């Protein structure tokens, strides 16, 4: 055996093998290459090596989901590095006679997903189980999905099965060498008996016991079929086509005959042992199951998990223990074979991965302007005094209430990177829900968190859970501008949340998504004492006072250098109330225009006191003290008057930008505004636009962030909006901003997902403003709402999609009428939200209405009409009304081919849907041929890594395997399609983090 260095720390173990029964544990021990703890010690973790991995081997204290969940949680806390758990052992199988998934005793099942069939709701006439864990508790991790997908290919599954058979022989030989001659011998084929589902295991002469046609007494349940003389005439006749010629090894270990088979499918998990044939068939048919077991659901919710169990009985009343040891051995052998395919990442590699993505304090602040860095350095000593012990202490949260809170947080990040370079820093903008969600999405993407690329994943929960995992190392999260109490704690106010229709799903507040763990520290900046008090859980709030005269003078001196006296700096600082933003604007004006401090003070005195008072009004609503708004407003007036004279385009850009979200304003939106002005006759070149932006930066009215985006201070945004209102220009600017964002915001789909995410906060912002009531502006608003609906549909944010779709419909119905094509399109989106929320009757009613109106008004071949027919077909498919769905899907596909062309994405989508319908109608050959054509065309049109291409290819591979096994014929899948699917699997494997 090649030498291998043993793990030095518990966190170096990444794989756990878990067993529920001692006999399962014994088989796993025989499959291990090395075991480092006494195999008989069932009360402690054993460690060893299996399939090229250092593993933790665990025997559960008892059977069932609850015990499994508790043990898995303890395992995770003891071994922080565990990234994959394999639950191996024995299970009850679903016979599936005559199907592609026909199961025999000894066959092994690998879980594709798990169904908690005993978890759900009890209605008067029925029990409705909840969805699979795959859907209700999040999909399996990307690593698990990619690994299992490999074994859903013909080549991958065949290789796994061959290797598992070889390992089984090794296990049998090893047990024989240790004196267990027959422990893992395969029972005789005659012992694999399947009785009819309704044939009960009971006493036939029931006069002396409680046995009857529907019940068996305890004595009968404990007796064998031979003792009860269960009639062989009730045995199910099964195919023997899989019998094989015995090799010498098979003859030696009693494995002659049919080789065990490995299947991939859905596994049912519950706290009860299933021993009823009819109930087995009903549950399996309802949930498409291939096996039943008792622990998978408990572990799956704690650790990324694969269930690998072998069938020892048929989950009916005729249970016996003849096959248990052999089944445990085949499961353990398959577990080892699978681990040989599993690639793992070391803890060091994970840390390197996080660092290489650069999502740390360094990357966040490297794009910060020199001026901002200078200000941060000026605050350094004060910051260290206030926050210096935050990371080392057990306090998870710190709060700053200050006019310079962001600069202080930045200074702390600079210090943290220098003093603790191993601490990772994440920056989260929290001015609104969309910014918060966008920041979490960036964290997930930059860190490669499994599941980040799933548009329907709960991104906030995903990141929170990932950060709370102890293997991530120490980290600091800065939550900046958490000023809106309702955003974090909606229940604190009786007022309605005004921003829900476009923000993230925050019905329960963002507060529940802030990570809580011992290895992470949260720094929250806020000016809202209510928010701070709630988030501190009763702990003291760190309140930072105003800048001192000395700090203010130092800040001005850094910007203005040595050409001013200390007395002048002191006078200017006092005049501007020591407010950092006002000081920065004043210094920028002095430097840009080469004027003296004395001259600038005179300009301040010349400002209209009435104008200053009026422009200061917005600050009163956000809790500013009386001196702050006047100081800032006075400097803003001086700067803005100068800009209007010097560069009118700069003042126009500021007026436009103040109506967007103040953070992360993309350059493309600025370009869009300039293009709008060019259409109106203005001559604006790229150099002129860049000069205007430079002017705004020079006067400290906006700041440049990374990736060609600009930020605006909240106070500058408020005073600029107030100035527009006083000049009667606000409504016109709102209309312009709405038009620009509406023109640039795309309809939500895979290709446009990143733009939609980046522009969503700005779409949110402009839609919050009340502009004019003109028809054109309201239609522009409706168009933007439509495109935002598309993005919410793509992300699976159904409730929000419903809200914005309803607003779009209302506007279009009022102006265009109910039968206008644009109105019908918005109605179709609303129906889609109903369908995706399981509101079938509402979806069907609205889809029918849209389809009938479209047919009458637009004609059968209009694209909107075709979409409405396809949507109605999907509603039928969701309800299992396959014949009705087939009729509509055939109609849509043929018309799409004729109107849009055979390779249009909508045509390919209709082909995919029709193939799904035919498959459920058991028209296998038609379904597979159509899906093969769809796969080829999607590869050519959309590309190999497009989600729709991968979806079709994955479905085709599953169907091909099922059909081949059922028909006993050769593969129906052409070689080019098979190679293509293998390429997709490889792509998924290389894409995993």
From TrEMBL:
Q: Which residues form the Nucleoside phosphorylase domain?
A: 15-124
Protein name per Swiss-Prot or TrEMBL: Kinesin light chain
One of this protein's GO BP terms?
nucleoside metabolic process
SUPFAM superfamilies (UniProt xref): P-loop containing nucleoside triphosphate hydrolases, Purine and uridine phosphorylases, TPR-like
Q: Please report the organism this UniProt entry assigns to the protein.
A: Colletotrichum noveboracense
What GO terms are given for molecular function? catalytic activity
PANTHER family linked:
AAA+ ATPASE DOMAIN-CONTAINING PROTEIN-RELATED, ATP/GTP-BINDING PROTEIN-RELATED
Tell me the organism's taxonomic lineage: Eukaryota, Fungi, Dikarya, Ascomycota, Pezizomycotina
Q: Sorted alphabetically, which InterPro entries does this protein's record hold?
A: DUF7779, NLR-like, Nucleoside_phosphorylase_d, Nucleoside_phosphorylase_sf, P-loop_NTPase, TPR-like_helical_dom_sf
Membrane-spanning parts: none
- Residue intervals of the DUF7779 domain: 643-725
A single Pfam family, by name? Answer: DUF7779
């Amino acid at each position: 055996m090649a030498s291998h260095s043993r793990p030095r720390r518990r966190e170096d173990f990444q794989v756990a093998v878990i067993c529920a029964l001692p006999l399962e544990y014994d088989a796993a021990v025989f499959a291990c290459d090395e075991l480092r703890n006494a195999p008989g010690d069932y009360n402690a973790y054993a460690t060893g090596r299996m399939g090229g991995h250092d593993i933790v081997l665990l025997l559960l204290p008892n059977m069932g989901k609850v015990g499994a969940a508790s043990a898995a949680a303890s395992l995770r806390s003891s071994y922080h590095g565990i990234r994959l758990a394999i639950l191996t052992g024995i299970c009850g199988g679903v016979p599936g006679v005559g199907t592609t998934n026909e199961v025999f005793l000894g066959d092994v099942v690998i879980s594709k997903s798990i169904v908690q069939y005993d978890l759900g709701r009890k209605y008067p006439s029925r029990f409705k189980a909840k969805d699979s864990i795959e859907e209700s508790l999040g999909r399996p991790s990307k690593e698990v999905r990619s690994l299992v997908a490999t074994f859903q290919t013909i080549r991958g599954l065949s290789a796994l099965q061959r290797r598992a058979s070889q390992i089984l022989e090794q296990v049998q030989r090893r047990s024989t060498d240790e004196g267990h001659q027959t422990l893992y011998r395969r029972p005789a084929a005659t012992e694999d008996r399947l009785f009819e589902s309704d044939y009960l295991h009971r006493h036939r002469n029931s006069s002396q016991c409680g046995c009857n046609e529907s019940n068996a007494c305890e004595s009968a349940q404990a007796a064998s079929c031979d003792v009860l003389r269960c009639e062989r005439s009730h045995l199910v006749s099964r195919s023997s086509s899989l019998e094989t010629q015995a090799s010498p090894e098979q003859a030696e270990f009693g494995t002659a005959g049919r080789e065990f088979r490995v299947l991939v499918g859905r596994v049912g998990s519950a706290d009860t042992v299933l021993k009823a044939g009819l109930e087995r068939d009903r549950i399996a048919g309802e949930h498409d199951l291939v096996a039943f077991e008792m622990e998978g659901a408990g572990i799956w919710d704690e650790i990324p998990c694969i269930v690998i169990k072998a069938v020892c009985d048929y989950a009916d009343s005729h249970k016996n223990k003849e096959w248990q040891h052999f089944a445990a051995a085949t499961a353990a052998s398959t577990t080892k074979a699978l681990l040989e395919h599993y690639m793992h990442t070391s803890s060091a590699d994970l840390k390197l991965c996080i660092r290489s993505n650069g999502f740390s304090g360094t990357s966040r602040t490297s794009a910060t302007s020199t001026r901002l860095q200078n200000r941060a350095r000026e605050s350094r000593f004060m910051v260290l005094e206030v926050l210096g012990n935050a990371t080392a202490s057990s306090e998870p949260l710190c709060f700053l209430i200050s006019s310079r809170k962001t600069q202080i947080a930045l200074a702390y990040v600079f210090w943290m990177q220098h003093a603790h370079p191993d601490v990772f820093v994440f920056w989260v903008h929290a001015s609104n829900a969309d910014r918060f969600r966008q920041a979490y999405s960036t964290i997930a993407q930059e860190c490669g968190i499994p599941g980040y690329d799933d548009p329907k994943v709960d991104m906030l929960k995903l990141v929170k859970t990932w950060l709370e995992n102890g293997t991530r190392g120490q980290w600091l999260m800065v939550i900046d501008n958490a000023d809106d109490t309702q955003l974090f704690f909606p229940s604190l106010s009786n007022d309605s949340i005004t921003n829900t229709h476009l923000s993230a799903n925050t019905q329960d507040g963002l507060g529940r998504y802030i990570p809580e763990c011992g290895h992470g520290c949260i720094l929250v900046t806020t000016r809202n004492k209510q928010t701070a008090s709630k988030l501190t859980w009763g702990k003291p709030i760190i309140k930072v006072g105003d800048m001192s005269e000395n700090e203010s003078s130092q800040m001005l001196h850094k910007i203005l250098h040595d050409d001013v006296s200390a007395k002048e700096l002191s006078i200017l600082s006092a005049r501007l109330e020591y407010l950092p933003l006002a000081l920065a604007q004043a210094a920028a004006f002095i430097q840009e225009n080469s004027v003296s401090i004395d001259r600038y003070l005179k300009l301040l005195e010349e400002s209209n006191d009435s104008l200053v008072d009026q422009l200061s009004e917005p600050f009163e609503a956000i809790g500013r003290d009386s001196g702050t708004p006047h100081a800032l407003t006075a400097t803003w007036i001086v700067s803005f008057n100068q800009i209007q004279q010097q560069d009118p385009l700069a003042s126009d850009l500021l007026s436009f930008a103040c109506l967007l979200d103040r953070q992360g304003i993309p350059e493309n939106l600025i370009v869009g505004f300039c293009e709008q002005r060019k259409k109106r006759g203005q001559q604006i070149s790229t150099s002129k636009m860049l000069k205007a932006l430079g002017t705004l930066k020079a006067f400290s009215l906006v700041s440049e962030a990374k990736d060609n985006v600009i930020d605006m201070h909240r106070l500058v945004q408020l005073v600029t909006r107030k100035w527009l209102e006083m000049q009667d220009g606000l409504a016109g600017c709102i209309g312009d901003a709405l038009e620009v964002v509406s023109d640039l915001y795309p309809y939500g789909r895979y290709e446009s997902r990143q733009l939609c995410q980046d522009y969503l906060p700005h779409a949110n912002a402009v839609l919050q403003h009340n502009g004019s009531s003109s028809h054109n502006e309201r239609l522009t608003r409706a168009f933007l709402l439509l495109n935002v609906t598309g993005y919410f549909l793509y992300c699976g944010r159904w409730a929000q999609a419903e809200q914005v779709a309803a607003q779009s419909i209302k506007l279009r119905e009022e102006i265009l009428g109910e039968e206008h094509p644009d109105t019908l399109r918005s109605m179709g989106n609303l129906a889609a939200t109903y369908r995706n929320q399981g509101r079938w009757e509402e979806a069907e009613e609205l889809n029918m209405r849209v389809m009938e109106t479209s047919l009458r008004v637009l004609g059968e071949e209009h694209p909107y009409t075709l979409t409405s027919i396809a949507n109605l077909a999907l509603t039928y498919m969701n309800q299992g009304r396959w014949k009705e769905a087939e009729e509509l899907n055939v109609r849509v596909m043929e018309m799409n081919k004729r109107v849009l062309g055979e390779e249009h994405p909508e045509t390919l989508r209709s082909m995919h849907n029709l193939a799904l319908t035919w498959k459920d109608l058991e028209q296998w050959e038609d379904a597979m041929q159509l899906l093969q054509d769809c796969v080829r065309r999607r590869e050519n049109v959309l590309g190999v890594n497009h989600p729709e291409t991968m979806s079709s290819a994955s479905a085709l591979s599953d169907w091909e395997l099922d059909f081949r096994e059922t028909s006993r014929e050769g593969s129906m899948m052409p070689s080019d399609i098979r190679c293509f699917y293998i390429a997709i699997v490889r792509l998924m494997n290389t894409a995993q983090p």
